[in-house]
Design brief:
21% strand, 13 helices, 6-stranded parallel beta sheet, 468 residues
Protein backbone atom coordinates (compact mmCIF):
# COMPACT_ATOMS: atom_id res chain seq x y z
CA UNK A 1 0.00 0.00 0.00
CA UNK A 2 1.33 3.43 -0.94
CA UNK A 3 1.91 5.68 2.04
CA UNK A 4 -0.31 8.77 1.87
CA UNK A 5 1.04 12.29 1.78
CA UNK A 6 1.27 13.79 5.27
CA UNK A 7 -1.79 15.85 6.12
CA UNK A 8 -0.01 17.87 8.84
CA UNK A 9 3.56 18.75 9.76
CA UNK A 10 4.46 18.94 13.44
CA UNK A 11 7.89 20.24 14.35
CA UNK A 12 9.21 19.98 17.85
CA UNK A 13 11.78 22.63 18.72
CA UNK A 14 9.84 25.38 16.96
CA UNK A 15 11.61 28.15 18.87
CA UNK A 16 15.11 26.69 18.42
CA UNK A 17 18.11 27.61 16.32
CA UNK A 18 17.53 24.99 13.61
CA UNK A 19 13.97 26.18 13.07
CA UNK A 20 15.17 29.79 12.90
CA UNK A 21 17.97 29.19 10.40
CA UNK A 22 16.65 26.35 8.27
CA UNK A 23 13.06 25.22 8.83
CA UNK A 24 11.14 28.47 8.39
CA UNK A 25 13.02 29.35 5.17
CA UNK A 26 12.36 25.83 3.87
CA UNK A 27 8.65 26.09 4.69
CA UNK A 28 8.34 29.41 2.85
CA UNK A 29 10.12 27.96 -0.17
CA UNK A 30 7.77 24.96 -0.19
CA UNK A 31 4.80 27.33 -0.15
CA UNK A 32 6.19 29.35 -3.05
CA UNK A 33 6.41 26.17 -5.12
CA UNK A 34 2.95 25.01 -4.07
CA UNK A 35 4.40 22.03 -2.17
CA UNK A 36 2.87 22.81 1.22
CA UNK A 37 -0.84 23.15 1.96
CA UNK A 38 -1.30 21.38 5.30
CA UNK A 39 -1.30 22.70 8.89
CA UNK A 40 2.16 23.31 10.39
CA UNK A 41 2.16 22.83 14.17
CA UNK A 42 5.10 24.15 16.14
CA UNK A 43 5.77 22.63 19.57
CA UNK A 44 8.14 24.07 22.17
CA UNK A 45 8.50 24.95 25.82
CA UNK A 46 9.06 28.69 25.64
CA UNK A 47 5.96 30.27 27.17
CA UNK A 48 5.10 31.73 23.76
CA UNK A 49 1.87 32.43 21.93
CA UNK A 50 1.06 31.71 18.30
CA UNK A 51 1.59 35.37 17.45
CA UNK A 52 5.09 35.24 18.92
CA UNK A 53 5.88 32.18 16.81
CA UNK A 54 4.69 33.98 13.69
CA UNK A 55 6.90 36.95 14.58
CA UNK A 56 9.83 34.57 15.06
CA UNK A 57 9.16 33.05 11.64
CA UNK A 58 9.06 36.51 10.03
CA UNK A 59 12.34 37.50 11.68
CA UNK A 60 13.89 34.21 10.57
CA UNK A 61 12.95 34.86 6.94
CA UNK A 62 14.21 38.45 7.04
CA UNK A 63 17.65 37.20 8.05
CA UNK A 64 17.75 33.97 6.03
CA UNK A 65 16.70 34.50 2.45
CA UNK A 66 14.10 37.26 2.60
CA UNK A 67 10.36 37.48 3.17
CA UNK A 68 8.00 36.73 0.30
CA UNK A 69 4.82 38.56 1.42
CA UNK A 70 2.35 36.26 -0.32
CA UNK A 71 4.09 33.06 0.78
CA UNK A 72 4.52 34.32 4.34
CA UNK A 73 0.83 35.17 4.57
CA UNK A 74 0.02 31.57 3.60
CA UNK A 75 2.56 30.26 6.12
CA UNK A 76 1.10 32.41 8.89
CA UNK A 77 -2.37 31.03 8.12
CA UNK A 78 -1.07 27.44 8.30
CA UNK A 79 0.91 27.89 11.51
CA UNK A 80 -0.35 26.48 14.80
CA UNK A 81 1.43 26.42 18.14
CA UNK A 82 1.47 24.17 21.21
CA UNK A 83 3.49 25.33 24.21
CA UNK A 84 4.42 22.85 26.92
CA UNK A 85 6.88 20.47 28.51
CA UNK A 86 7.77 17.41 26.41
CA UNK A 87 7.42 15.21 29.49
CA UNK A 88 3.87 16.41 30.24
CA UNK A 89 0.96 14.36 28.82
CA UNK A 90 -1.07 17.59 28.64
CA UNK A 91 1.27 18.92 25.96
CA UNK A 92 0.51 15.98 23.69
CA UNK A 93 -3.21 16.08 24.44
CA UNK A 94 -3.10 19.69 23.26
CA UNK A 95 -1.20 18.57 20.16
CA UNK A 96 -3.82 15.92 19.44
CA UNK A 97 -6.54 18.61 19.64
CA UNK A 98 -4.54 20.93 17.36
CA UNK A 99 -4.15 18.17 14.76
CA UNK A 100 -7.97 17.96 14.59
CA UNK A 101 -8.88 15.57 11.75
CA UNK A 102 -5.33 14.95 10.51
CA UNK A 103 -4.79 11.18 10.18
CA UNK A 104 -1.25 11.04 8.76
CA UNK A 105 0.88 13.70 10.44
CA UNK A 106 4.65 13.93 10.06
CA UNK A 107 6.41 14.59 13.37
CA UNK A 108 9.76 16.33 12.88
CA UNK A 109 12.03 16.12 15.94
CA UNK A 110 14.23 19.21 15.55
CA UNK A 111 15.36 18.76 19.15
CA UNK A 112 18.42 17.35 20.98
CA UNK A 113 18.64 13.53 20.67
CA UNK A 114 18.38 13.17 24.46
CA UNK A 115 14.69 14.14 24.09
CA UNK A 116 13.83 11.70 21.29
CA UNK A 117 12.75 8.83 23.54
CA UNK A 118 10.53 11.06 25.70
CA UNK A 119 8.75 12.59 22.71
CA UNK A 120 8.30 9.28 20.88
CA UNK A 121 6.79 7.65 23.96
CA UNK A 122 4.44 10.60 24.49
CA UNK A 123 3.37 10.51 20.84
CA UNK A 124 2.38 6.88 21.29
CA UNK A 125 0.52 7.44 24.58
CA UNK A 126 -1.48 10.33 23.12
CA UNK A 127 -2.36 8.46 19.90
CA UNK A 128 -0.52 11.13 17.91
CA UNK A 129 1.62 8.37 16.38
CA UNK A 130 -1.31 6.57 14.74
CA UNK A 131 -0.87 6.70 10.97
CA UNK A 132 2.06 9.05 11.45
CA UNK A 133 5.70 9.15 10.39
CA UNK A 134 8.64 10.56 12.34
CA UNK A 135 11.54 12.65 11.04
CA UNK A 136 14.69 12.75 13.19
CA UNK A 137 17.78 14.92 12.86
CA UNK A 138 21.33 13.61 12.98
CA UNK A 139 23.31 12.64 14.95
CA UNK A 140 21.67 9.21 15.00
CA UNK A 141 23.31 8.22 18.26
CA UNK A 142 26.79 8.98 19.58
CA UNK A 143 28.29 5.58 18.75
CA UNK A 144 27.10 2.13 17.66
CA UNK A 145 25.47 1.24 20.99
CA UNK A 146 23.51 4.50 21.28
CA UNK A 147 22.49 4.29 17.60
CA UNK A 148 21.10 0.82 18.22
CA UNK A 149 19.27 2.07 21.31
CA UNK A 150 17.81 5.01 19.36
CA UNK A 151 16.63 2.70 16.61
CA UNK A 152 15.06 0.43 19.24
CA UNK A 153 13.13 3.40 20.65
CA UNK A 154 11.92 4.56 17.25
CA UNK A 155 10.95 1.05 16.13
CA UNK A 156 8.98 0.46 19.32
CA UNK A 157 6.41 2.96 18.00
CA UNK A 158 7.00 3.41 14.26
CA UNK A 159 7.67 0.98 11.40
CA UNK A 160 11.02 1.42 9.66
CA UNK A 161 9.13 2.60 6.56
CA UNK A 162 7.76 5.50 8.63
CA UNK A 163 11.12 6.61 10.09
CA UNK A 164 12.98 9.32 8.17
CA UNK A 165 16.51 10.00 9.44
CA UNK A 166 17.61 13.37 8.07
CA UNK A 167 21.14 13.83 6.87
CA UNK A 168 20.65 17.14 5.06
CA UNK A 169 23.66 16.33 2.86
CA UNK A 170 21.46 13.84 1.01
CA UNK A 171 19.16 16.75 0.21
CA UNK A 172 21.92 18.52 -1.73
CA UNK A 173 21.34 18.14 -5.43
CA UNK A 174 25.07 17.88 -6.32
CA UNK A 175 25.44 14.88 -3.97
CA UNK A 176 22.66 13.07 -5.80
CA UNK A 177 24.05 14.23 -9.13
CA UNK A 178 26.94 11.83 -8.49
CA UNK A 179 24.50 9.00 -9.16
CA UNK A 180 23.24 10.67 -12.34
CA UNK A 181 26.81 11.17 -13.54
CA UNK A 182 27.65 7.52 -12.95
CA UNK A 183 24.48 5.75 -14.08
CA UNK A 184 23.14 8.05 -16.82
CA UNK A 185 26.39 8.20 -18.82
CA UNK A 186 27.65 5.06 -20.54
CA UNK A 187 31.25 6.24 -20.85
CA UNK A 188 31.75 6.51 -17.05
CA UNK A 189 31.34 2.79 -16.44
CA UNK A 190 34.34 2.08 -18.69
CA UNK A 191 36.84 3.64 -16.28
CA UNK A 192 35.04 3.80 -12.92
CA UNK A 193 36.73 0.79 -11.35
CA UNK A 194 39.97 -0.56 -9.90
CA UNK A 195 41.45 -1.19 -13.35
CA UNK A 196 41.75 2.55 -14.05
CA UNK A 197 41.44 4.34 -10.70
CA UNK A 198 44.57 4.43 -8.53
CA UNK A 199 43.09 6.28 -5.54
CA UNK A 200 40.17 8.50 -4.54
CA UNK A 201 40.30 11.48 -2.19
CA UNK A 202 37.34 13.36 -0.73
CA UNK A 203 37.85 16.72 0.98
CA UNK A 204 35.24 18.62 2.99
CA UNK A 205 36.88 21.86 4.10
CA UNK A 206 35.43 24.73 6.12
CA UNK A 207 37.26 28.03 6.57
CA UNK A 208 35.43 28.85 9.83
CA UNK A 209 35.52 27.49 13.37
CA UNK A 210 32.77 26.21 15.66
CA UNK A 211 30.77 29.47 15.39
CA UNK A 212 29.65 29.65 19.01
CA UNK A 213 28.65 25.98 19.14
CA UNK A 214 31.60 24.93 21.29
CA UNK A 215 29.50 23.02 23.81
CA UNK A 216 27.90 20.89 21.11
CA UNK A 217 31.01 20.45 19.03
CA UNK A 218 33.20 19.42 21.94
CA UNK A 219 30.90 16.43 22.50
CA UNK A 220 30.93 15.56 18.81
CA UNK A 221 34.09 16.27 16.78
CA UNK A 222 34.75 16.03 13.07
CA UNK A 223 34.45 12.26 12.73
CA UNK A 224 30.98 12.17 14.28
CA UNK A 225 29.86 15.52 12.86
CA UNK A 226 30.60 15.11 9.16
CA UNK A 227 32.72 12.06 8.26
CA UNK A 228 30.58 9.24 9.66
CA UNK A 229 27.52 10.68 7.92
CA UNK A 230 28.10 13.32 5.19
CA UNK A 231 31.32 11.96 3.69
CA UNK A 232 30.21 8.34 3.98
CA UNK A 233 27.11 9.28 1.99
CA UNK A 234 29.27 10.87 -0.71
CA UNK A 235 31.55 7.82 -0.75
CA UNK A 236 28.55 5.47 -0.99
CA UNK A 237 27.26 7.34 -4.03
CA UNK A 238 30.69 7.07 -5.60
CA UNK A 239 31.22 3.36 -4.96
CA UNK A 240 27.82 1.65 -4.99
CA UNK A 241 26.84 -0.78 -7.74
CA UNK A 242 24.01 0.10 -10.15
CA UNK A 243 20.72 -0.54 -8.32
CA UNK A 244 18.14 -2.84 -9.90
CA UNK A 245 15.76 0.12 -9.85
CA UNK A 246 15.71 3.70 -8.63
CA UNK A 247 13.11 3.08 -5.97
CA UNK A 248 14.31 4.05 -2.51
CA UNK A 249 14.96 0.53 -1.20
CA UNK A 250 16.95 -0.62 -4.23
CA UNK A 251 19.24 2.42 -3.94
CA UNK A 252 19.60 2.07 -0.19
CA UNK A 253 20.34 -1.66 -0.51
CA UNK A 254 23.40 -0.87 -2.63
CA UNK A 255 24.62 1.79 -0.21
CA UNK A 256 24.46 -0.65 2.68
CA UNK A 257 26.49 -3.17 0.66
CA UNK A 258 29.23 -0.55 0.29
CA UNK A 259 29.50 0.02 4.03
CA UNK A 260 29.46 -3.71 4.74
CA UNK A 261 32.50 -4.08 2.47
CA UNK A 262 34.54 -1.52 4.48
CA UNK A 263 36.62 -2.91 7.36
CA UNK A 264 36.54 -1.07 10.68
CA UNK A 265 39.10 1.72 10.83
CA UNK A 266 42.51 1.19 12.39
CA UNK A 267 44.28 3.94 14.32
CA UNK A 268 47.29 3.79 11.99
CA UNK A 269 45.06 4.98 9.12
CA UNK A 270 43.71 8.03 10.91
CA UNK A 271 45.20 11.42 11.84
CA UNK A 272 43.26 13.76 14.11
CA UNK A 273 44.00 17.46 14.54
CA UNK A 274 42.77 20.44 16.54
CA UNK A 275 43.15 24.05 15.42
CA UNK A 276 45.05 26.39 17.70
CA UNK A 277 42.56 28.54 19.58
CA UNK A 278 39.89 25.85 19.83
CA UNK A 279 40.46 25.46 23.58
CA UNK A 280 39.56 29.14 24.03
CA UNK A 281 36.09 28.69 22.54
CA UNK A 282 33.11 29.00 24.91
CA UNK A 283 31.85 25.61 26.01
CA UNK A 284 35.07 23.78 25.13
CA UNK A 285 36.92 21.92 27.90
CA UNK A 286 40.39 23.34 28.51
CA UNK A 287 41.92 19.88 28.16
CA UNK A 288 39.68 18.84 25.23
CA UNK A 289 40.88 16.02 23.00
CA UNK A 290 38.09 16.59 20.46
CA UNK A 291 39.27 16.74 16.86
CA UNK A 292 38.42 19.64 14.56
CA UNK A 293 40.25 17.94 11.68
CA UNK A 294 40.52 14.32 10.62
CA UNK A 295 42.11 12.51 7.70
CA UNK A 296 41.62 8.80 7.19
CA UNK A 297 42.27 5.99 4.76
CA UNK A 298 39.59 3.43 3.93
CA UNK A 299 39.41 0.26 1.88
CA UNK A 300 36.26 -0.74 -0.02
CA UNK A 301 36.63 -4.48 -0.41
CA UNK A 302 34.19 -4.96 -3.25
CA UNK A 303 34.76 -6.52 -6.68
CA UNK A 304 34.92 -3.04 -8.23
CA UNK A 305 37.16 -1.32 -5.70
CA UNK A 306 39.36 -3.94 -4.02
CA UNK A 307 42.86 -2.48 -3.60
CA UNK A 308 41.89 1.15 -4.31
CA UNK A 309 42.54 3.35 -1.25
CA UNK A 310 39.97 6.01 -0.37
CA UNK A 311 41.22 9.05 1.53
CA UNK A 312 38.75 11.25 3.41
CA UNK A 313 39.56 14.49 5.19
CA UNK A 314 37.44 17.16 6.81
CA UNK A 315 38.08 20.02 9.15
CA UNK A 316 37.42 23.49 10.42
CA UNK A 317 39.61 26.59 10.08
CA UNK A 318 41.07 25.32 6.82
CA UNK A 319 42.08 27.66 3.95
CA UNK A 320 38.75 27.50 2.11
CA UNK A 321 35.18 26.17 2.25
CA UNK A 322 34.71 23.49 -0.36
CA UNK A 323 33.71 19.85 -0.84
CA UNK A 324 35.55 18.10 -3.64
CA UNK A 325 36.35 14.63 -4.93
CA UNK A 326 39.48 13.75 -6.90
CA UNK A 327 39.88 10.32 -8.49
CA UNK A 328 43.46 9.74 -9.66
CA UNK A 329 43.97 7.44 -12.63
CA UNK A 330 46.80 4.96 -13.00
CA UNK A 331 49.57 6.39 -15.14
CA UNK A 332 49.51 5.08 -18.71
CA UNK A 333 52.12 2.52 -19.85
CA UNK A 334 53.95 5.25 -21.74
CA UNK A 335 57.55 5.75 -22.80
CA UNK A 336 57.22 9.27 -21.41
CA UNK A 337 58.85 9.47 -17.94
CA UNK A 338 56.44 9.21 -15.01
CA UNK A 339 57.80 12.46 -13.59
CA UNK A 340 56.40 14.30 -16.61
CA UNK A 341 52.95 12.67 -16.43
CA UNK A 342 51.68 14.69 -13.49
CA UNK A 343 47.91 14.97 -14.03
CA UNK A 344 45.46 12.27 -14.98
CA UNK A 345 42.34 12.61 -12.86
CA UNK A 346 38.61 13.20 -12.60
CA UNK A 347 37.64 16.04 -10.26
CA UNK A 348 34.09 16.56 -9.02
CA UNK A 349 33.20 19.53 -6.84
CA UNK A 350 29.99 19.47 -4.81
CA UNK A 351 30.16 22.94 -3.28
CA UNK A 352 30.25 25.92 -3.37
CA UNK A 353 29.84 25.46 -7.13
CA UNK A 354 29.24 22.23 -9.06
CA UNK A 355 32.17 21.19 -11.23
CA UNK A 356 33.18 18.15 -13.24
CA UNK A 357 36.71 18.37 -14.61
CA UNK A 358 39.01 15.94 -16.41
CA UNK A 359 42.69 16.47 -15.71
CA UNK A 360 44.98 15.47 -18.55
CA UNK A 361 48.29 16.04 -20.27
CA UNK A 362 48.64 17.94 -23.54
CA UNK A 363 51.38 19.54 -25.59
CA UNK A 364 52.66 22.79 -24.17
CA UNK A 365 52.18 25.89 -26.37
CA UNK A 366 55.00 26.46 -28.86
CA UNK A 367 56.51 23.21 -27.72
CA UNK A 368 59.29 21.59 -29.68
CA UNK A 369 59.18 17.83 -29.50
CA UNK A 370 57.34 16.18 -26.63
CA UNK A 371 56.92 18.94 -24.07
CA UNK A 372 53.80 18.45 -22.00
CA UNK A 373 51.68 20.50 -19.64
CA UNK A 374 48.87 19.65 -17.24
CA UNK A 375 45.39 21.08 -17.65
CA UNK A 376 41.70 20.39 -17.23
CA UNK A 377 38.56 20.30 -19.32
CA UNK A 378 36.05 21.90 -17.01
CA UNK A 379 32.27 22.01 -16.87
CA UNK A 380 30.99 24.14 -14.00
CA UNK A 381 27.64 25.33 -12.72
CA UNK A 382 26.78 27.81 -9.99
CA UNK A 383 23.53 27.05 -8.15
CA UNK A 384 20.72 29.45 -9.06
CA UNK A 385 18.41 31.24 -6.67
CA UNK A 386 15.50 29.03 -7.73
CA UNK A 387 17.20 25.75 -6.79
CA UNK A 388 15.84 23.85 -3.80
CA UNK A 389 17.65 24.12 -0.50
CA UNK A 390 18.56 20.80 1.13
CA UNK A 391 16.01 21.18 3.94
CA UNK A 392 13.23 22.06 1.53
CA UNK A 393 14.01 18.92 -0.44
CA UNK A 394 14.22 16.51 2.51
CA UNK A 395 11.15 17.85 4.31
CA UNK A 396 9.12 17.62 1.11
CA UNK A 397 10.38 14.09 0.47
CA UNK A 398 9.51 12.95 3.99
CA UNK A 399 5.98 14.30 3.70
CA UNK A 400 5.63 12.45 0.38
CA UNK A 401 7.03 9.24 1.96
CA UNK A 402 9.97 9.22 -0.46
CA UNK A 403 12.66 7.40 1.54
CA UNK A 404 15.49 7.65 -1.00
CA UNK A 405 17.04 10.73 0.66
CA UNK A 406 17.13 9.20 4.14
CA UNK A 407 19.39 6.81 6.02
CA UNK A 408 18.04 3.36 6.79
CA UNK A 409 18.59 1.60 10.14
CA UNK A 410 21.17 -0.87 8.81
CA UNK A 411 23.10 1.88 7.02
CA UNK A 412 23.38 3.96 10.18
CA UNK A 413 24.61 1.04 12.23
CA UNK A 414 27.18 -0.03 9.60
CA UNK A 415 28.54 3.53 9.46
CA UNK A 416 29.05 3.54 13.23
CA UNK A 417 30.68 0.11 13.07
CA UNK A 418 33.38 1.47 10.74
CA UNK A 419 34.39 4.35 13.01
CA UNK A 420 33.70 2.59 16.34
CA UNK A 421 37.37 1.64 17.02
CA UNK A 422 38.41 5.30 16.77
CA UNK A 423 35.72 6.39 19.22
CA UNK A 424 36.87 3.87 21.82
CA UNK A 425 40.58 4.64 21.65
CA UNK A 426 42.16 7.88 22.80
CA UNK A 427 44.30 8.36 19.69
CA UNK A 428 46.76 11.28 19.53
CA UNK A 429 45.53 14.71 18.55
CA UNK A 430 47.88 17.14 16.83
CA UNK A 431 47.60 20.94 16.81
CA UNK A 432 47.49 22.89 13.56
CA UNK A 433 47.57 26.56 12.66
CA UNK A 434 44.25 27.99 11.37
CA UNK A 435 44.12 28.59 7.62
CA UNK A 436 46.38 25.59 6.94
CA UNK A 437 45.54 22.09 5.70
CA UNK A 438 45.75 20.40 9.08
CA UNK A 439 48.71 19.17 11.15
CA UNK A 440 51.98 18.13 9.51
CA UNK A 441 51.35 14.58 10.75
CA UNK A 442 48.70 14.24 8.03
CA UNK A 443 51.55 13.14 5.75
CA UNK A 444 51.02 9.72 7.34
CA UNK A 445 47.59 9.52 5.66
CA UNK A 446 48.17 11.02 2.23
CA UNK A 447 47.13 9.81 -1.25
CA UNK A 448 49.77 8.83 -3.81
CA UNK A 449 51.07 12.10 -5.27
CA UNK A 450 49.67 14.09 -2.33
CA UNK A 451 46.38 15.74 -1.46
CA UNK A 452 44.96 18.01 -4.14
CA UNK A 453 43.93 21.10 -2.18
CA UNK A 454 40.82 22.78 -3.58
CA UNK A 455 41.04 26.46 -4.37
CA UNK A 456 37.76 28.33 -4.73
CA UNK A 457 38.45 30.86 -7.45
CA UNK A 458 35.91 31.14 -10.25
CA UNK A 459 35.05 27.48 -9.62
CA UNK A 460 38.47 26.24 -10.67
CA UNK A 461 41.16 24.25 -8.94
CA UNK A 462 44.90 25.04 -9.27
CA UNK A 463 45.42 22.89 -12.37
CA UNK A 464 42.21 24.17 -13.92
CA UNK A 465 43.63 27.66 -14.19
CA UNK A 466 46.04 26.39 -16.83
CA UNK A 467 45.09 25.95 -20.43
CA UNK A 468 43.49 22.63 -21.21
Amino acid sequence: MTNPHSDALVFFGATGDLAYKKIFPALQAMLKRGHLNVPVVGVAKAGWTLEQLKARAHDSLEKHGGVDPAAFEKLANLLRYVDGDYQAPETFKALRRELKDAHNPAHYLAIPPVLFETVVEQLAKSNCSNGARVIVEKPFGHDLATAQELNKVLLSVFDEADIFRIDHYLGKRPVNNLLAFRFANTFVEAFWNRNYIESVQITMAEDFGVQGRGGFYDQTGTIRDVIQNHLFQVMSNLTMEPPVGFDSESVRDEKVKVLKSIPALEAKNVVRGQFRGYLDENGVAKDSQTETFAALKLEVNSWRWKGVPFYLRAGKCLPTTCTEIVAKFHKPPSLIPDSVLTENHLRMRISPDVTIAMGMMSLAPAAEGISLQAGEMVATHSPGADEMDAYERVLGAAMEADRSLFAREDYVEEAWRIVEPLLRKNSPIYPYVPNTWGPSEVERVTPPGGWQDPVVKHGLSPVATQAA
